[in-house]
Amino acid sequence: MVNIQDFSFAYRRKPIFRGLNLHLEPGHIYGLLGQNGTGKSTLLRSLAGFLFPKGGRIDVLGFEPRRRQPAFLQQVFLLPEEFHLPAIPISRWVRHLAGFYPRFSQEQFHRNITGFDIPLEGSMQEMSYGQQKKLLISFALAVNASLLLMDEPTNGLDILSKSQFRKVIAGSLDERQCILISTHQVKDLENLIDRILVIEEGRILFDQGMDTISQKLTFTLSFDPEQTAQALYSESSLKGNALVLPNTYGEDSRPDLEMLYKAVILESEKINRVFKP
Amino acid sequence: MNQTFVFSRWVMLVADHWAENRKRYLLALLAMGGLLAAWYGFLLTIDKFGPLNLFLQYSAYYFGLYFIGCFYASTIFSELGSKSRAIQYLSIPASHLEKLLCGILFGVVLFFLAYTAVFYLVDIPMVSLANRIIAREHQHWPGTFEPISSVQVLNLWNNPWAPIPDRKFHLFLLGYFAVQSAFLLGSVYFTRWSFIKTVLALLLFWLVFVLFTDKAVTERLPDGWHAYDMLRWYDNSDNTAVFRMVRLPEATERLLILVIQYSFPPAFWVITYFRLKEKEV
Questions:
Q1: Whole-prediction pTM
Q2: In what order do the strands lie in the sheet with A203-209?
Q3: Does the CB of B14 have a partner CB in chain A at under 8 Å?
């Protein structure tokens, strides 16, 4: 679905990506993690055709994104971190915009906005930032785009909405679609994503499925100094030491995304060694 | 599916643009009409003898057309000035050509028609009011028996008050479309303050053109020869009644006039199209 080969990009003289290779498959929800300024939003905008590669090649569904052809735009939807909604009623906005997307589902849209508890009356400019974001998420999901790119989708959402967000996303994906979510709020993606991509200094530092992570790593709290010494990554807390350990005994442990992210960033060599075949 | 132009998709884009902007546009038209009526009202109060003559109507029409038309054109692609709005605009599944044609439809065609309609909606009743004032209050010029003729409604295509190049070649009217298309390009080219920056860019081009004609052309003419206009040069070195003029062959001159009259808007639209296509946000 998405094939990125030898992709390079720079803002004036500041290089962001140099020779990035990435492959995304349909039927998955990918979590794109990385520190500020590592190029997460740049990657999403390049995939959506709003930024052009300085080198290499991006192929999305057989299209070259930079050409922004209508058939491509119908199948790829970017939900940006900063967005703009016109000062018109929701119904009018949806009526006009939905016509551009052949797979748009009115029923799904109404289900989403009902789930998010968004009022349908009034102008969109009168809504709060969080409500606007939920509206846009509802629309983005109802478009049924083959590739849905979401940049910090949970920013500005309250706790209940974040939980609703996870529910709505999980219920929306089918095997033809691929969702790529870029975020700092790793906790918000727990139980949602099935593959993690960590980017650092313009390259993919870590790319693994959640099942593989569960098989290879275990996440636990422990006061045992011996166990702490064996950890790939440890962090002290009031409840004990939070540890990321190799899953030597095949234990069933739910990955802690925040711990995993920190482990990948700070101990990438150790972590990646565990995943080497 | 055609990726360049599909009429039904373009109609959807036009409908979407109208849905988002209709309130703003209708209010703007109302404000334009109100401003013109206020200006005419002012002229009627200060001049009871020859109010709203053709020159005043002509200057009011063109001042408004140039100023408002160019300002509006500089906002046609204003979405591209902000990252969030640009992403929303560029992600609409329509081609760049369809987006450009939508901009041209609103910024060039509909604006011109709406502006002209609003102008005449105000102009015709105000001219009729001016004629009633003339008939009621002053039928002769002060201190003479010369009757004050009634005021006519401006004819854009055939106005005896217009300067000669405008009467002959409709230079002001066609020039408007050329200048306005430059502002349309400016709205894609400059992300911020596009109106001001386009004004400055046009002034710079004008300065280069004037310097070119003055330094590169006029200074190279033989003694006593001067530029008559852009395409003709004359000699009055012996200060006699003999007037010698050099001009281009008629066919070439006609072709150049046609190019000056009609080629600028499409040329600017083509550049705007490529600029829009290459826009990154």
A1: 0.90
A2: A76-79, A147-151, A178-182, A28-34, A195-200, A203-209
A3: no
